[in-house]
């Protein structure tokens, strides 16, 4: 089993944290994981991404060459992956922030719009967009358990923030499963 995920957005959206948490949960489940990150010159507002590879075998190269899943949370990030190759790659984009009609591209069935930011706001936690995205990604990787994800979150967030983040994670998993 090998699964490659790219979380992409702009600085401040927490995409690197989402990749880190997913990788930590994978390791808790006995899998191997690598995570790399890249971000623009400005810490907030510039392009940022993280590549995560999860496998049950040794990982020889830490960057995603054939992603199975890309989650784009900002238009700049989405535009970098509009020409992604591979029929097996699903691109989930935040349709609340990215207006694909204005971009003028014809998208195929690999592209799925989900109003991720709007859903996070409805949950009462606008800052949990990354955790909602984490849940979506986790639903595609069957070998990562909810218990491992919850445990990873419990070691990362304070008791005050944990409940909202677990709610966002659960909603993300539910959304992801509806796309399988």
UniProtKB/TrEMBL annotation:
Top-level taxon in the UniProt lineage: Bacteria
Pfam families the record matches: POR (PF01558)
SUPFAM superfamilies assigned: Pyruvate-ferredoxin oxidoreductase, PFOR, domain III (SSF53323)
PANTHER family membership: 2-OXOGLUTARATE SYNTHASE SUBUNIT KORC (PTHR42730)
Keyword Disulfide bond among UniProt keywords: no
InterPro entries to which the protein is assigned, alphabetical: 2-oxoglutarate_synth_KorC (IPR052554), Pyrv/ketoisovalerate_OxRed_cat (IPR019752), Pyrv_flavodox_OxRed_cen (IPR002869)
Keywords: Oxidoreductase
GO molecular function: oxidoreductase activity, acting on the aldehyde or oxo group of donors
Pyruvate/ketoisovalerate oxidoreductase catalytic domain location: 11-174
Protein name (database record): 2-oxoacid:ferredoxin oxidoreductase, gamma subunit
């Amino acid at each position: 089993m090998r699964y490659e995920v790219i979380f992409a957005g702009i600085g401040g959206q927490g995409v690197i944290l989402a990749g880190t948490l997913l990788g930590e949960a994978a390791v808790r489940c006995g899998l191997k994981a690598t995570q790399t990150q890249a971000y623009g010159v400005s810490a907030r507002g510039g392009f940022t991404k993280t590549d995560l590879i999860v496998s049950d075998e040794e990982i020889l190269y830490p960057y995603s060459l054939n992603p199975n899943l890309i989650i784009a949370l900002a238009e700049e990030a989405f535009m970098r992956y509009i020409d992604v190759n591979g029929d097996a790659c699903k691109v989930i984009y935040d349709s609340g922030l990215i207006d694909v009609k204005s971009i003028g591209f014809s998208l195929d069935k690999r592209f799925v719009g989900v109003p991720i930011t709007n859903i996070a706001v409805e949950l009462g936690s606008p800052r949990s967009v990354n955790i909602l995205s984490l849940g979506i990604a986790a639903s595609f990787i069957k070998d990562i358990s909810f218990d491992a994800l919850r445990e990873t979150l419990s070691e990362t967030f304070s008791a005050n923030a944990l409940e909202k983040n677990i709610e966002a994670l659960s909603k993300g998993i539910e959304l992801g499963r509806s796309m399988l």
